Amino acid sequence: MPVINILIFLCGLVLLVKGADLFVLTSSMIARKLGVSEFIIGLTLVSVGTSVPELASSLTASFQQASGIVMGNILGSNIANIGLIASTAALLTNVRTEEVMLKRDGYIMLFSSFLLFLFMLDFKISRLEALIFILLYLAYLLFLLDKVKKHEEEIYFKDFLIYFFKFEYLIDLKSRINLEVQKYRKGNGSPGGTKKDAWRTGEKTEKKTESESRTESVTEPKNEDIDVDITAETLSESSLLIEFFKLIASVAAIMIGAKYFVEQAIFFALLLQVPETLIGVSLVAVGTSVPELMVTVSAARSDYASIALGNVIGSNITNILLILGCSGLVHPIKTTDLDIYYIAPFMLIINALLLFFIRTGWRVKRFEGLILLLLYLGFMILLLHIG
User: Fold this and answer.
1) I want to staple 45 with a disulfide (CB 3.0 to 4.6 A). Which of 27, 290, 326, 382 is the partner?
2) Residue 65 lies in a domain
3) Which domain holds residue 157?
């Protein structure tokens, strides 16, 4: 019965959202400990975390070769992020913006959207095009973490294009891997180094027997210090282990939720005899955008405009470059006339309009938020009528 299917659909959505919440909480806590800025948190950890439902549902749909659900989910989520989420944040408060939001991340969002539209024109997203998306996302993350961190005031969209086409991200990735390897060797030592340390420990033990009284008097307080350090390290490892189990639990919830969520979305598409894309743009996109809505509204109420808009812009970039990229690698994605002639152009228009509002007085005002919301509602009504 449809009632049972609705309940399963909602349960799957709840598992997706709660799993994403747990992921976001853990990621944000780690980022704060590392001293990452609020805007970078919004663009990377929070945007990826709140995009987990889109990632899980899109990958599940891709495995089932439901291209309409994948495209509808990505396009619909990007439209909802601006027309529903950013507009709601602006209606709650005049959202302050920054120049870097426009000239760096905003332009990267618009560039990603336009590139997606170009790739869609042959009515499919091939594996090669999906790989280009993933490479762009990898370059974007490394660009934020390496280049922007060093030259925050000077790095913009044109610098990102130079960074990508000169393959500088591969150099940065290699240096980061080498750095991690060096840290690991320093922390744990190589197998040969371990034997050498053991030999040195034995040598020191022999020396201790020669002057036991003097050594004990010196080493006793040092042993107390070492015990404290070991205890602190053990507690830290225990805390990390707990966080690791939380991540496992969140991934399990997301996978189970995505499975039932997508299955029921396909069921409703068949039941209502409407295109899968329409179900993806409406039910799936709005449902998976709930985490972004919660995070953005909470940030707007707390007057953290950088996180609020950073989350929206970062999520839109992530949806296209990472989520669509991964889904396209699993299976090439077909596009439809509805995608190319209606949904994708509107996504480009509303993206450009958000960037224009960011530029006007470096605030997204309440009446501008109302314009975005009315445009979104009007578009959804038109789309449902067409469908």
Assistant:
1) 27
2) yes
3) 2-190+247-386
Q: What are the 10-residue block averages of pLDDT along the chain, 387 residues in total?
A: 80 78 67 58 60 82 88 93 89 81 90 96 95 93 75 76 85 75 66 44 45 45 43 52 70 77 78 81 81 72 70 89 94 92 95 93 89 95 82
The first and second tokens of residue 135, run together, are 């490479």
Does residue 242 belong to any structural domain of this protein? no
**Tell me, what CATH number does 316's domain have?**
1.20.1420.30
In a domain, 213, yes or no: no
pLDDT at 276: 82
Q: What is the pLDDT of residue 211?
A: 46
Q: How many structural domains are present in the chain?
A: 1
Residue 203 inside a domain? The answer is no
**Residue 258: CB partners within 8 Å, gap ≥ 6?**
12, 16, 53, 56, 57, 59, 60
Q: Which among 282, 258, 292 has a CA at the least distance from the CA of 88?
A: 292
